[in-house]
Amino acid sequence: MNENYVYLNGDYVKENEAKISVFDRGFIFGDGIYEVAPVFNGVIVDKIDFLERLFSSLSKLDIKLNHSCDEICKILDILIAKNSLKEGGVYLQITRGVAKRSFEFVKGLEPTIMAFTYTQDIKEYKYANKGVKLISFEDIRWQRRDIKSLNLLGQCMARTYAINNGYDYALLVNNGYVNECDSAGFFIIKNNVLVTKALSNEILPSIRRKNIISIAKKIGLTIEERNINIDEVYSCDECFICAATILIIPVIKINDKEFKIGKYSQILREKYLEKITLESNK
């Protein structure tokens, strides 16, 4: 099996040849951001939203990147072509760079830019038709979840708890209210109303969330962006999660409460697939 290429600071190298300094601030402090973009038919989809959130996160951490949107896209497009990726994701990570250990944001560093690709079925994702199970977990993450930073230990602890208890994802809850899942957005539907938490520093500004809301309006759903009590979740008609390379996946169980796969989660997934298919064929 041929090893994939990784992009690292201007070069495309084999995975086992990619090396960074032990003094990289991403390694020492988690001082950096990342993005994941879905790749469909060999093309990055939801590209504009991906770039907007990338540069928003960089700005919030005051990381100066001397690359334009077009240059970032070219880097990733070449990587996708080198790895012959047709369906899956591209992961991009940018750290502040290399410096002696110092807590303040060190100025004038050259950011470390790294990217890799991975294969995953998006259209035929394994849980698309059978759904996933969630277990609630207290949201212990840092308070700037709107920044897609490298600080993911809370999410790792939550997912490990879920897996160890026979579930697929953790549903992150704070003071009885649902935020999102460990690596996915979360929606409920009740009486033709689509409900999800409003954007704030408490959740990630999910690209899929933005597009799902747009699609939902077109198919006649009413949208509410507000806090969701966990008890309200238990009485909903249907619920689903969303993320870059899974799109929309129905939820069939939360803690001890079971749910049927609803019609809207299926319709929304079909419409989203139509959207990215159209984008990838342009």
Describe this structure as you would to a colleague.
With 282 residues, the protein is an alpha+beta fold. It folds into 2 domains: 5-119, D-amino Acid Aminotransferase, Chain A, domain 1; 132-280, D-amino Acid Aminotransferase, Chain A, domain 2 (Alpha-Beta Barrel). The chain has 7 helices and 16 strands. Strands 7, 8, 9, 10, 11, 12, 13, 14, 15 and 16 form a 10-stranded mixed sheet that branches. The protein starts with a strand and ends with a helix.
**First-to-last CA distance:** 32 Å
Determine the number of helices (DSSP H or I, runs of at least 4 residues).
7
Q: Tell me roughly what share of residues is in helical segments.
A: 25-40%
What is the fold-level CATH name, i.e. the topology of the largest domain? Answer: D-amino Acid Aminotransferase, Chain A, domain 2
Shape assignment: globular
Question: Briefly, what is this?
Answer:
With 282 residues, the chain is an alpha+beta fold. It has helices spanning 25-29, 47-60, 69-82, 153-164, 207-218, 230-234, 263-280; strands at 5-8, 11-14, 32-40, 43-44, 87-95, 112-119, 132-138, 169-174, 177-181, 185-190, 193-196, 222-225, 228-229, 238-243, 247-254, 257-258.
